[in-house]
Amino acid sequence: MNITETSNGAIAIVAIEGRLDALSAPELRNNRSVIDPEKTVVLNLEKLDFMNSTGLGAIVGALNQKLQPDFGIVLSCMNDDVRSVFEITNVQKLFHIFDDTAAAVEFATTRQGAHT
Amino acid sequence: MSSIITLTLPGQIMFARLASQTASSLADLVIGENREESAKRKFCHAFELAVSEAVTNSVTHAEELDAPQMLTVTFEFEPRQLTVSVRDANPPFSIDKSAPDIESYPVHGFGLKIIREIMDQFTYRRDGDANIITMSKSL
Description:
The complex is a heterodimer. Chain A contains five helices and five strands; from the N terminus they run ββααβαβαβα. Chain A is of the alpha/beta class. Chain A has a five-stranded mixed β-sheet with strand order 1-2-3-4-5. In chain A, strand 3 (40-51), helix 3 and strand 4 form a beta-alpha-beta unit. The longest helix of chain A has 14 residues, at 101-114. The relative contact order of chain A is 0.19. Chain B is α+β, with helices and mostly antiparallel strands. Helices cover 39% and strands 29% of the residues of chain B. In chain B, a hairpin with a 3-residue loop joins strand 2 (70-77) and strand 3 (81-88). In chain B, helix 2 (37-63) packs antiparallel against helix 3. The chains are: A alpha/beta, B alpha+beta. The interface between A and B is medium-sized, with 26 and 27 residues.
């Protein structure tokens, strides 16, 4: 798995590429933007090929780190396979999910602005 | 006639990925060329995900033991279904746990729910000192 990070204003955009499973989940759990309670993160999942429930748990765990559970982690661009894991487990209810990263960043920026 | 392939793996997390990627490759091999691409993709992903869940659970518990055990993953191809069994020497466990409450923002406990949802058959039994999970999906 590769993680690349960029920023758009106060929003960190963390792109995950490859497989998010028990082997790679610690890397996401230890990402500095993920563990920063005050940092709003857009997780770009466009190049995430595979995710199991351990990977899903790492994403929920990232949300648990945030002071603002409503928009601390925003998701974008997941493929059908990854989306199915969210849907089967009903975890999609915990997140705002967007089909493109620009919309996710715009949402996160707006929500963050409303809280500052 | 059926064909059987068996993997014997150390109970370490890195080998869970090997098992799931093998599952995906085997599913792709047996599902045939005549299927619609999206159906083919869905079948292979489901089989890979179920194996990933079962083997990850097995190796996670194996790593908790003083001396991690080997586990065996057996794939069986029949004309109309693909079956996988995961056998380990871990302590017994219950499959009757309900899925975690979403409102508590759970970070684990989804594996069995996923397996039940995406596979056509799922059984667990204790055989002496071994756990055996068996899962099937119709082709």
